[in-house]
Design goal:
By secondary structure, the chain is of the alpha/beta class. Helix content is about 40%, strand content about 20%. A five-stranded parallel sheet has the order 2-1-3-4-5, with helices on both faces. Keywords: Phosphoprotein.
């Protein structure tokens, strides 16, 4: 099974996503980070992971995270999970080949069901 990384500076957002993953049977290989720099260091050592990524974070925002992945040719599956409802952000996210889905917070079971294709491929 692929490793799943939750990268969001808000612990409650990671908690909700992690609980939904557990409910859907993904309790193993799930790692959460509130520090995007630490997350990037760990994730850059991995191959073929799934990353739930927030955009608005201190130290390293989601855009910087995506750009760094792209520059290093690291090809994880990225699901943007952001509070931003901006069409500009959605369009910008679609320019990154690794981004397979843009979802607005808060995560819930209905939204989570849209992700089964990406999660079950590992």
């Amino acid at each position: 099974m692929k490793k799943i990384y939750l990268v969001d500076d808000q612990p409650i957002a990671n908690f909700i996503t992690k609980k939904l993953l557990e409910i859907e049977g993904f309790s193993e290989n799930v790692f959460d980070f509130t520090d995007p720099v630490m997350a990037f260091q760990k994730i850059s050592e991995e191959q073929d992971a799934i990353i739930f990524l927030d955009l608005n974070m201190p130290k390293m925002n989601g855009w910087q995270f995506l750009e760094e992945l792209q520059q290093r040719n690291i090809k994880h599956t990225i699901i943007i999970l952001s509070s931003s409802t901006s069409e500009i952000d959605k369009t910008r996210a679609s320019t990154f080949k690794n981004v397979v889905k843009y979802m607005e917070k808060p995560m819930n079971r209905d939204k989570f069901s849209e992700l089964s294709t990406y999660l079950k491929t590992g």
